[in-house]
């Protein structure tokens, strides 16, 4: 294999099935720490298992892997302020044998400057698809935004008035917006505009996740999740 082919292989997308959750990244990211289990696995020194779709399968906690993968991408550990699964994450870091992450999780220093906190926005898209339509038809799609950043919710309310006909409800003291049902083209347009608006408010995307599930014999539901974060300064009362 020449250098060009090897470089293409390192940057070529690869999908992992971690406990039923799918993650897409590059081999170079997975090999960031060569002495780790993932480094050995994608170097060919460790046996691999594939699922029915050909994705690499690892029978571990799929939700916590988002933090593992983000650490591989940035070499930084950033957790939500209300994160309560440090012990479980330590076990995952130990399983994957990522020594810098293990050290970071055992470091007593605070994860953030004391005068800052992290604001989180969750954007999810739920799409139900019919197996028997050709091409596959969208039965229903809806978008949900969840956050406690009230200024962002107010901005969405003010800037997306043309989508009000798709808004089903706001609940939990303006914590969550749900748009839908709408057709595929409306959902894509709305999602693109929402993601652009959230990014312009200073949020950066931390994690994406796709989950497939079958509800009936003739239907599939596909859920996409995006997590956005930004640091904000605490304001004294």
From TrEMBL:
Residues 12-113 form the BTB domain. Pfam families: BTB_2. Coiled coil: none annotated. GO terms for biological process: protein homooligomerization. Gene3D superfamilies: Potassium Channel Kv1.1, Chain A. This is BTB/POZ domain-containing protein KCTD6. It comes from Triplophysa tibetana.
């Amino acid at each position: 294999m020449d250098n060009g082919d090897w470089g293409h292989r390192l940057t070529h997308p690869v999908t992992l099935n971690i406990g039923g959750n799918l993650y897409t990244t590059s081999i170079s990211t997975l090999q960031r720490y060569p002495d780790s289990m993932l480094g050995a696995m994608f170097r060919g020194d460790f046996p691999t298992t594939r699922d029915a779709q050909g994705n690499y399968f690892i029978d571990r906690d799929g939700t916590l892997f988002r933090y593992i993968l983000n650490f591989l991408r940035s070499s930084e550990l950033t957790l939500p302020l209300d994160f309560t699964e440090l012990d479980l994450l330590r076990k995952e870091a130990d399983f994957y044998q990522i020594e810098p992450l293990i050290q970071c999780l055992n470091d007593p220093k605070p994860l953030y400057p004391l005068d800052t906190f992290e604001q989180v926005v969750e954007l999810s898209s739920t799409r139900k698809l019919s197996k028997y339509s050709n091409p596959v038809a969208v039965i229903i799609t809806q978008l949900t935004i969840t956050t406690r950043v009230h200024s962002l919710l107010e901005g969405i309310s003010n800037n997306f008035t043309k989508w009000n006909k798709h808004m089903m409800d706001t609940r939990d003291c303006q914590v969550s917006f749900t748009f839908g049902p709408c057709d595929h083209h409306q959902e894509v347009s709305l999602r693109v505009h929402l993601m652009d608006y959230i990014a312009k408010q200073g949020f950066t995307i931390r994690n994406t996740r796709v989950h497939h599930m079958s509800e009936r014999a003739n239907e599939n539901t596909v859920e996409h999740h995006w997590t956005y974060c930004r640091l904000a300064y605490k304001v004294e009362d």
